[in-house]
TrEMBL record:
Residues 20-29 have a biased composition (Basic residues). It is found in: Golgi apparatus membrane. Residues 7-19 have a biased composition (Low complexity). Belongs to the glycosyltransferase 47 family. The keyword Amino-acid biosynthesis does not apply. Residues 175-460 form the Exostosin GT47 domain. Signal peptide: none annotated. It comes from Urochloa decumbens. This is Exostosin GT47 domain-containing protein.
């Protein structure tokens, strides 16, 4: 059988290169037979080589791709192609030191500590599918069972009575709360409050709530709260007869307005006004609600004049509203800021109108330059203001005195926060602003009216370390008492709205 042409050509090529033979064969037939045998042997050898190569390739591809599993022959064949790092060094010779004691078995290293279990975030329900009162009951349970706050850069825990519950309540307010604003009521008493002066809080709150896309809702059936958008300041300017000392026309006007709402809409009658609220900052704000029994008893009132002794403000239901002075509505934060403790050379400062029962007593003991450390004046004298203005006095004082006037509230409390001065509050029966959530002992000093003669001793008795901590709290608290043209998280607009929301949530009854 003849080999294939490509195999049979090999001997011919070899013979061609070998050149002519020196010895001639004696017999022609033997030469032919010998040549054929040689060709068959070469073919057989080539076939063996091909078979061996195929077997080697098959073995190589069938084994795992590891340098250790390769055979010694394969390694030798590919030694020239491997890098230095691919070659495994030979193992060291095994020797035994007979004089040395046997080595103890090394215990295995302890397993690494398992990472703390990540608590799965509780899935929030679809609040928009809940009925308003169902959502409020859910919120009350969640606030009661709030998880502890470990670290939150936006909240400074010492400022709050319970920072965990506040944070959870605030989160739920942002997600749940919807407020319906009545469009009824004639201007300017309704819908047009002032944005400047010492009663500007009611104006800024109304303005920002109306502009809120998150909380203001056009469908009253979706609302959790209903807002009576009147201005106590505008009510006084419009209806009060000067020097009459008669506030009844103001309260009668508001009473008739509420009666009109109850006759026109079904919402007041469902809860007898418990899910309604008003915001009034003028001193007469509480007295505008006295002619309507349900309004006074059930409605949530956010009042600057939060006096617990008059029987109008109900602590737990009503909210103490901070009284803020806005000098420039377009730039409400124009003068905010203060000096460090080391540059505050004045112990205590007050200047203002002398009226009410507290301020005359304050000037009697500390006014008229009786003590250089206690800068207490009536209206700031021109000779003094030329050297240092009212705001500069507050920024250079360690303590800013905030005595009540005709009523318990005073805008100097918030001014003290603006200028980073620790407020000293002198007003018995005053429910402090936002006291539902804030711990006032961390950043303010409350002095009883009877202790005015000992005022300097009380203030000097506060250790420097304690004062520095209080000053730091005032600086951190400042952000919660600022008005912004566009509200930001945890600012004064949201703090007031949160206190109103929390008052309504606490009214809910839940099982357990």
């Amino acid at each position: 059988m003849r080999p294939p042409p490509h195999l049979a050509a090999a001997p011919s090529a070899v013979a061609a290169h070998a050149g002519p033979s020196r010895r001639r064969p004696r017999h022609r037939g033997a030469t032919t037979t010998t040549s054929a045998a040689v060709d068959c042997c070469r073919v057989a050898a080539l076939a063996c080589l091909l078979a061996a190569g195929a077997a080697t390739a098959l073995l190589t591809f069938s084994l795992p791709a590891s340098p250790i599993s390769a055979s010694a022959t394969t390694r030798a064949g590919f030694a020239g192609k491997l890098s230095v790092t691919d070659r495994q060094p030979p193992p060291p010779p095994m020797t035994r030191n007979l004089s040395a004691p046997p080595a103890r078995a090394t215990p295995p290293p302890p397993p690494p500590p398992s990472p703390p279990a990540v608590r799965r975030r509780k899935r929030e329900p679809s609040y928009w599918r809940m009925a308003p009162e169902e959502a409020l009951r859910y919120a009350k349970r969640e606030i009661r069972d709030a998880e502890p706050v470990i670290d939150d850069p936006d909240l400074y825990a010492p400022l709050f009575k319970n920072v965990s519950q506040f944070k959870r309540s605030y989160e739920l307010m942002e997600r749940i709360l919807k407020v319906y604003i009545y469009q009824d009521g004639r201007r300017p008493i309704f819908h047009t409050p002032p944005l400047s002066g010492i009663y500007a809080s009611e104006g800024w709150f109304m303005k920002l709530l109306k502009e809120s896309r998150r909380h203001a809702v056009a469908d009253p059936t979706k609302a959790h709260l209903f807002y009576l958008p009147y201005s106590s300041q505008q009510l006084r300017l419009t209806l009060y007869v000067p020097d009459s000392h008669d506030l009844r026309p103001l309260s009668v006007y508001l009473r008739n307005f509420v009666r009109g709402l109850a006759n026109k809409y079904p919402f007041w009658n469902r809860t007898r006004g418990a899910d309604h609220f008003l915001v009034a900052c003028h001193d007469w704000g509480p007295y505008t609600a006295t002619a309507h029994r349900e309004l006074r008893k059930n409605t949530i009132m956010a009042l600057c004049n939060a006096d617990s002794s008059e029987g109008i403000f109900t602590q737990g239901k009503d909210v103490s509203l901070p009284e803020t002075t806005i000098r420039t509505p377009k730039r409400p934060l124009r003068y905010v800021g203060g000096l460090p403790v080391s540059r505050r050379s004045i112990l205590a400062f007050f200047a203002g109108n002398v009226h009410g029962r507290v301020r005359p007593e304050l000037l009697k003991h500390w006014g008229n330059g009786q003590d250089a450390d206690m800068r207490v004046y009536g209206l700031l004298p021109a000779r003094v203001s030329r050297r240092m203005s009212y705001i500069q006095h507050m920024k250079n004082s360690r303590f800013c005195l905030c005595p009540m006037g005709f009523e318990v509230n005073s805008p100097r409390i918030v001014e003290a926060f603006y200028y980073e001065c620790v407020p000293v509050i002198i007003a018995d029966n005053f429910v402090l602003p936002l006291s539902e959530v804030l711990d006032w002992s961390a950043f303010a000093v409350v002095v009883a009216e009877k202790d005015i003669p000992d005022l300097k001793r009380i203030l000097e008795g506060i250790p420097l370390r304690r004062y520095v901590a209080m000053h730091g709290c005032v600086k951190r608290l400042q952000r919660h008492f600022l008005w912004h043209a566009r509200p930001i998280k945890y600012d004064l607009f949201h703090m007031i709205l949160h206190s109103i929301w929390l008052s309504r949530v606490n009214q809910m009854e839940i099982d357990g």
